[in-house]
């Protein structure tokens, strides 16, 4: 594993992702100094209480002044605003990156604002939970998770190598991708599943003949697994939907066609079609487990009541 080191890293946004970065940077000794900036006084005060950085400020321009690496970890809809705030204060030669879940829109918002003498390398760690804020982060979040960089044409290879080394030191596996391809891939593996979860949980909470207490009481039958995704941060997911609109609409329309075909199989009692689909999907899960992206334990490896923790 190649280890890199920065004099100063500025973290703009200190929620789940920003605070996980702060923790792993400190643990792995990836910087001499961590400067933290966030929008609200309350979050900044909490970051300070948790001892996540070395310097704290509400002024993002002030935060980036001497930073060799700037990591923007805010909802994607706010990326342009942050780029405008920091642009004039960036140190020449600094690497500026982000962690946003959409890439085409973040590039369109940030690139025009940033000066030519910094290395802007958009990124996206495919690691997260349904929790948010500085308390939610943890240093192991990125271990064995993919981080996708979507560098623009002409980006300095040394800067890409340095950022790659940084994410590797955080425990990530690295890939590079074209930004629009990234957005299509993420639309199917992340954005669509979240929308389906938001929709099914919304439908269940709207059903009049099934009471809320029944939904909760019998949730372990399958519903519960959707509620984890549907508990994800509303601001983050609103922004993802608004900023990856085309790819999400394309995947939603394919999903709707396939759902209509499934509906037909159920209506006409086409057991062979149902069996074939369910066999194919089971193999997909096997592949995910074999790739180390899920544990091979029943019920998502959940601990049962009374079972000792390992
Ligand atoms: P989070 O826990 O909700 O934290 C968001 C941070 O951004 C907070 O510091 C917040 O500041 C700040 N912020 C919010 N709105 C802002 C605005 N309008 N202007 C400036 N700062 C603002 O979010 P997160 O989960 O870390 O997500 C951050 C980014 O990572 C998002 O772009 C998301 O798409 C991406 N991402 C998330 C996950 C995940 O699973 N959560 C995974 C991969 C990538 P205050 O608290 O001070 O208001």
From TrEMBL:
It comes from the Bacteria. One of its GO terms (molecular function) is NAD+ binding. Its EC number is 1.3.1.12. It catalyses: prephenate + NAD(+) = 3-(4-hydroxyphenyl)pyruvate + CO2 + NADH. Pathway: Amino-acid biosynthesis; L-tyrosine biosynthesis; (4-hydroxyphenyl)pyruvate from prephenate (NAD(+) route): step 1/1. GO terms for biological process: tyrosine biosynthetic process. Residues 7-296 form the Prephenate/arogenate dehydrogenase domain. It is an enzyme of class 1 (oxidoreductase). The keyword Amino-acid biosynthesis applies. Belongs to the prephenate/arogenate dehydrogenase family. NCBIfam families: PRK07502.1. This is prephenate dehydrogenase. It comes from Phyllobacterium bourgognense. The lineage of its organism: Bacteria, Pseudomonadati, Pseudomonadota, Alphaproteobacteria, Hyphomicrobiales.
């Amino acid at each position: 594993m190649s280890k890199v080191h920065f004099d100063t890293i500025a973290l703009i946004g200190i929620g789940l992702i920003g605070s996980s970065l702060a923790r792993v940077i400190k643990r792995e000794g990836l910087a001499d100094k961590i400067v933290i900036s966030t929008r609200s006084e309350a979050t900044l005060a909490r970051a300070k209480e948790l001892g996540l950085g070395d310097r704290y400020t509400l002024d993002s321009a002030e935060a980036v002044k001497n930073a060799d690496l700037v990591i923007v970890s805010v909802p994607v809809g706010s990326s342009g605003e942050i780029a405008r705030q920091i642009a004039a204060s960036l140190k020449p030669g600094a690497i500026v990156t982000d962690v946003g879940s959409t890439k085409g829109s973040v590039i369109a918002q940030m690139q025009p604002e940033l000066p030519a003498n910094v290395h802007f390398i958009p990124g996206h760690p495919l690691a997260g939970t349904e929790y948010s804020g500085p308390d939610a982060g943890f240093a192991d979040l990125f271990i064995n998770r993919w981080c996708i960089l979507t560098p623009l044409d002409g980006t300095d290879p040394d800067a890409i190598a340095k950022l790659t080394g940084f994410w590797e030191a955080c425990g990530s596996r690295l890939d590079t991708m074209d930004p629009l391809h990234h957005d299509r891939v993420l639309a199917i593996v992340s954005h669509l599943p979240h929308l389906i979860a938001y929709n099914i949980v919304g439908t269940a909470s709207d059903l009049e003949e099934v009471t809320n207490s029944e939904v909760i009481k019998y949730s372990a039958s399958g519903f519960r697994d959707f509620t984890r995704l549907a508990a994800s941060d509303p601001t983050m997911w609103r922004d993802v939907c608004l900023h990856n609109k085309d790819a999400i609409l394309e995947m939603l329309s394919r999903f709707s066609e396939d759902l209509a075909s499934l509906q037909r199989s159920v209506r006409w009692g086409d057991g062979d079609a149902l069996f074939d689909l369910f066999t194919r999907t089971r193999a997909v899960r096997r592949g995910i487990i074999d790739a180390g992206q899920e544990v091979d334990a029943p019920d998502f490896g959940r601990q049962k009541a009374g079972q000792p923790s390992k």
